[in-house]
Amino acid sequence: MFLLNASGCLDALVAPELAVRLDAFVTKTVTPEPREGNAPPRIAETEAGMLNSIGLANPGREAFVQQVLPRLREVLTTPIWVSVGGFSSDDYALVCASLPPDVAVVELNLSCPNVDEAPATAAEIVAASRAATTLPLYAKLSPHAWDVGEMVRAVEAAGADGISLVNTLRGLTLDAQLTPTLARGAGGYSGPALLPVALAAVHAARRATSLPIVGMGGVANGRDVLAMVACGATHVALGTVLFTDPDAPQRVRRELDDAVRAAGHASINDAFCAAHADVVSSVN
């Protein structure tokens, strides 16, 4: 099992000492052209998490490949996963085609709640990306889908090599004057309260596919990681917790060992799909 960061929740160039504690690093989402993102304010705390409306701020594919990626290689020895976004299937394909062969995985951000979504379906975007690159493709899916299993089967048929879920939920908070706190209004909600939603999505996804799954959403401790694996996650990503606890990767690993023993298992592998009483699988 890999322990990763959720895209956008860690900048390895700002906090390399934290990034190197993970088994792989996931970049912020890269789009074809540079984006300044949404107007501020674009981050707000809530009682059980946070809202963000960053809007995919990034330097664009050319600057990322020529400037950012070489710097990441200097500070990281772990695999680099690149998150890719856009506003059409052609956008995704363009970024995918620009990435060098040493990128470990391309994570297609198909579910950002802070920008206008591409009119193409998730499967169409995966298919276009698959035609543009031979790199492994993971489809990052939304928790808003009514039938997660159906969406998973669709992106797998289109060429996805793995699944990441869940992205943030759309949420809104108000200030003292009862106006939206974020300039955009709604934003992406993340934090501990997202965990049950994420577990349900991972459980449904595992019922639909044998592909590797990165489970994320509300993971804050070792028991949460164990729950993700029990629901069918192959790997687990930390998100909001990285903003508040720079020791999170090491702490979570210590807690995971204790949680595995408390659950009566010899190793984390033994807990894989434990929540699927009628499913027999093995860790990929």
Kindly describe this structure.
The protein is of the alpha/beta class and 284 residues long. The chain has one domain: Aldolase class I (TIM Barrel), CATH 3.20.20.70. The protein is 33% helix and 16% strand. The chain has nine helices and twelve strands. It has helices at residues 16-19, 61-75, 89-98, 122-132, 148-157, 195-208, 222-231, 241-244, 248-262; strands spanning 3-5, 25-26, 43-46, 49-52, 80-84, 105-109, 137-140, 162-165, 169-171, 187-190, 213-215, 235-238. Strand 11 (213-215), helix 7 and strand 12 (235-238) form a beta-alpha-beta unit. Helix 4 runs parallel beside helix 5 (148-157). The longest helix is centred in the first third of the chain and has 15 residues, at 61-75. It starts with a strand and ends in a 22-residue tail after the last helix.
Task: Please write out the topology.
Layout: E1 3-5, H1 16-19, E2 25-26, E3 43-46, E4 49-52, H2 61-75, E5 80-84, H3 89-98, E6 105-109, H4 122-132, E7 137-140, H5 148-157, E8 162-165, E9 169-171, E10 187-190, H6 195-208, E11 213-215, H7 222-231, E12 235-238, H8 241-244, H9 248-262
Parallel strand pairs: 1-12, 2-5, 5-6, 6-7, 7-8, 8-11, 11-12
Antiparallel strand pairs: 3-4, 4-10, 9-10
Helix pairs in contact: 3-4, 4-5, 5-6, 6-7, 7-9
| Total separate domains | 1
The pLDDT mean sits at 94
Q: Helix share of residues? A: 25-40%
Q: H/E element string?
A: EHEEEHEHEHEHEEEHEHEHH
Spatial gap, N to C terminus = 9 Å
Judged by helices, strands and strand pairing, the structural class is alpha/beta
